[in-house]
TrEMBL record:
UniProt keywords, alphabetically: Heme, Iron, Metal-binding, Monooxygenase, Oxidoreductase
This protein's record includes keyword Metal-binding: yes
MF GO annotations: heme binding; iron ion binding; monooxygenase activity; oxidoreductase activity, acting on paired donors, with incorporation or reduction of molecular oxygen
Homology family: Belongs to the cytochrome P450 family.
InterPro entries: Cyt_P450, Cyt_P450_CS, Cyt_P450_E_grp-I, Cyt_P450_sf
Naturally occurring in which organism (per UniProt): Microctonus hyperodae
Protein name (record): Cytochrome P450
CC cofactor: heme
Chain sites annotated for binding heme: C22
Top-rank taxon, per record: Eukaryota
């Protein structure tokens, strides 16, 4: 999200684009949706220290992730 709360443009192209677009993109996005939906369905997520995640300091790589972010998963009953 941008500073004003709007959805920012996705400037990464993990599946390529144009004529070189990955044939498995649709399948990969479907599986990713299924995995995330299952995790959210089965667990409650919370920050370990109870503080909101700081998105300013990031670890670059295949996927960008916030530094020193720990999430607790507790099973839903």
């Amino acid at each position: 999200l941008t500073d004003d709360g709007r959805l920012g443009k996705d400037l990464s192209f993990p599946f390529g684009f144009g004529r070189r677009l990955c044939a498995g993109e649709t399948f990969a996005r479907f599986i990713l949706f299924e995995v995330i939906a299952t995790i959210l369905q089965q667990f409650n997520l919370s920050m370990i220290d109870g503080q909101p995640c700081k998105l300013d300091d990031k670890i670059p790589g295949i996927s960008v992730q916030p530094k020193n972010t720990w999430i607790r998963l507790s099973e839903r009953l």
